[in-house]
Amino acid sequence: MNSQVINVAIVVAYLAAMLLFGWWGKSRTKDTSDFLVAGRRLGPLLYTGTMAAVVLGGASTVGGVGLGYQYGISGMWLVVAIGTGVLLLSLLFAPTLQKLRIYTVAQMLTLRYGVHATKFSGIVMLAYTLMLCATSTGAYATIMVVLFGWERWLSILVGGTIVLIYSTVGGMWSITLADMAQFIIKTIGVFFLMLPLTWSSAGGIEGIRGRVDAEFFSIDGIGVQTIITYFVVYTLGLLIGQDIWQRVFTARTPRVARWGGAAAGTYCILYGAAGALIGMAAAVVIPNIEVPDDVYADVAMNLLPLGVGGVVLAAAVAAMMSTASGTLIAAATVAKADVVPFVMSWFGKTVDADHEHAEHDVAGNRWWVFGLGALSILLAILVQDVVAALTIAYDILVGGLLIAILGGLVWKRGTGMGAAVSMAAGSVVTLTTMIVLEINAENRYDGVYANEPIYYGLAAALVSYIAVSLATRPTDPAVRAAWDRRVAGAAAQEAPAVGAEALTRR
């Protein structure tokens, strides 16, 4: 009982600190840039910590330990794929993205191609970020259920409300400070407490080796097909996700975006290995746990010393909250900047794109964060299978948008028509393949969760992008010139554009 009380007290103290970060962030938030991208002023330390925090959520922490428990060292591949995505984005594209001085992925497409058809990407991105936020909100509730004994809905409501408050009040500055605290707690909890203590309890590598199958030490024990799936879904998805790009936009300089991000990616890979090693040791010390996702909490509650378990549980909650808050502000940014203007254009209406008004509309941004945060809490409570919805959004994100986005960054001959047709073809083929497979599915992994929709979507998008781009006139020279100026860093001397209309005017 004493141990339980101490664990609860530690987690409660952590949750209270998150609320305080909201008020600290409010004092630093003066305009839209502060609220959405922390004023584009993060240095190497803050940038590295927050980038690592936003990508390492419940799947990486609780799920990573569970995979290690099931499959041994090869359980690390999920998080390694995530880390690889961060590495590639940082080394190849982050400096260019930082120079653009934009807020969303759709704005990059509008700036690069000069056509409004690419605004469709905002709808896909909103669905993806909202589902990821709902999934993370439901995930950290599982820890609160174990710790406080609450019903699932109450755990989601309380935890979601805390994230909602500090995200709404202080925006990206609050989220940055909270993520940095979460990064520190995760590092201490996983690397300095959980890993050495579980391995000590298991008798080290010799103790583990003597009580598990040799397959536990096989690097591909989880299956080659599964490893490929992780890299296709997570590595490629991280290259173009709004939640990740929005963190790139917070970097102070292109150099910070590149090397701070590379450090975060390396950290993620080490984090994945640590999680798998913890799971391996737990399989020896606490065998016969039926649900792999329960391993993390069982180790914290039953294996670790007094008080240490509370820090480890706080680390799990921290991991999930950092992802939830990051995807929440990303969803709000996309909804306000991209989706609303695009949808209103269907009815012949336009949104005021006045730069001065948009740059100081902090209240409007707060309302969007609040509204979508409330919606994500409701989704987490009501929808039992948000993972299926997230999978659909992830598949369309990669299958439909990847080629148009990366093509715009690496191929000068790519055109707006090519990008628009590529996005349409990739999305339609991905969805159609998913529906056909779901109708004929014999098990869980033959339908929505199959890999084929992404493969076919990517193939259709690539062929369409190349063929249509070569068959249509090159991008307008004025649009290319504006893009080249941005890539050269000229936008650093200008006030950043907020809406797509402002981008096309410049």
Automatic annotation (TrEMBL):
Segments traversing the membrane: 6-24, 45-69, 75-94, 126-150, 156-176, 183-202, 222-241, 262-287, 299-321, 367-383, 390-411, 417-441, 453-471
Coiled coil (residue ranges): none
Keywords, comma-separated and alphabetical: Membrane, Transmembrane, Transmembrane helix, Transport
Subcellular location: Membrane
Its membrane topology: Multi-pass membrane protein
InterPro entries: Na/Glc_symporter_sf (IPR038377), Na/solute_symporter (IPR001734), Sodium:Solute_Symporter (IPR050277)
Keyword Cell division annotated: no
Pfam families: SSF
Family membership: Belongs to the sodium:solute symporter (SSF) (TC 2.A.21) family.
Protein name as annotated: Sodium:solute symporter
Species assigned in the record: Arthrobacter mangrovi
